[in-house]
Amino acid sequence: MSEKVNGKHIFSLLEVTKSIQKTITNRYQTAFWVKAEMNKLNHYQRSGHCYPELVEKKEGKVIAQISAILWKSDYQKINTNFQRVLKEPLKDGIKILFSATINFDPKYGLTLQINDIDPSFTLGDLEKEKQDTINKLRLAGIFSKNKQLALPVLPQRIAIISVETSKGYADFLNVFESAGRSWNYTFFQLLFPSLLQGDNAVRTIIAQLRRIKKVIHHFDVVAIVRGGGGDIGLSCYNNYDLAKEIAEFPIPVITGIGHSTNETVAELIAHENAITPTKLAEFLIQKFHDFSVPVHKAEEKIIDRSRSLIRDAQTKFASEVKLLRSVTRNILDKNKNAVRQQAQSLSQQSRFRLGNEKKVLTAAGEDIRKGTYQFCTAQKHHTSYLTADLKKAIHRQLAQKSLGLKNLETNIHNLSPQNVLKRGYSITQLAGKAIRSTEQVNPGDLLTTVLYEGSVSSTVQSTKKA
Prior knowledge:
This protein is an alpha/beta fold. The chain has helices spanning 13-27, 72-85, 119-139, 167-183, 201-214, 240-247, 265-269, 277-414, 417-422; strands at 3-5, 8-10, 32-40, 53-58, 61-69, 94-105, 109-117, 157-162, 188-193, 221-225, 253-256, 272-273, 427-430, 433-434, 446-450, 455-459.
């Protein structure tokens, strides 16, 4: 009950919330259908209950928001139905049409209690998302871009996006191992681990595609392989960002996602798509068969043709050898006598020619002997004459040189300092050095004059230039 204070009716918070509860209970007595986006499922594993956050958006902005509750029993029933119809579990970010009752609790506030969810509504929305993705790819002109790439004749180097523990991945590798044992085919595979379904699959697959792109020169093809998970969780392969990454990838992308329902966008735009990883591996093996079988047939044809050509050549060669022997024998027989006659004639001519040449050589030798003797005798006389003349010339030269030396000795004796002084000449010195010019002395200098016998000292009074 409210109380009145200073003319004001005052209610407690509990009274107000209970009044709201009563009003809502009376107004909303039955369940009703609501469409909204499940922003967060908020499923708690321990209790099994879910506390979804429901929103409505307009132009990307939230214009309405409310919390809801989904009890464990209802969640299990609804989730099972979702997986049967949509091949997808309840998850964040999907649009739903649900039946709910409005509850208001004085302590916990307003909530919607979800009783049922219509999966066909969500299925339609997911199909709409798929069509929107296809339309955007077509509008961008890239829907068939990856399909237009040329697949290598022998796609040996394979970048695999999968989960290492996936059954589909194991099946994929087993096919290649079997092909290696049976036909000696060699493949190089490298795994790029990624989630293959669920909310984070798009992000991790794109991340691995970008990793592969950095080392693209090492690979011929990219294989996205998924298996063992049934048809659940495939909506991620309708995502536009993932589809765009695949469509614009620089080498062929092939898929073996492993399901039997309608193809996803990723499969539609991939260069090749197989229903299972095993079928995808068999497709690659078939590429090797397509190349190997014609090559082996061509090899067999080449071998057969080569053998035939060799046999024909051997037969022809044997025939020609036989003919050559016959012709050669006839020619040899015809020319044998002629050769013998030529040999005899040549022998006679050689002996005659050798005899003549021997006589010529003998005569020439005698002439050389006589000429050599005469030349040596003449040279001997000439040498004697030269020796006598040389002796006379040497005596004359020695006499002339001896007379010159005597004259030179006399001149040297006459020009010696003592003989020069003896003839009346003298040497004037200043400080022990001979004076040659008046410019070397000054008045007052003490001079020494050297004579033939003795010396004279004097003092300079004055100088006079010549």
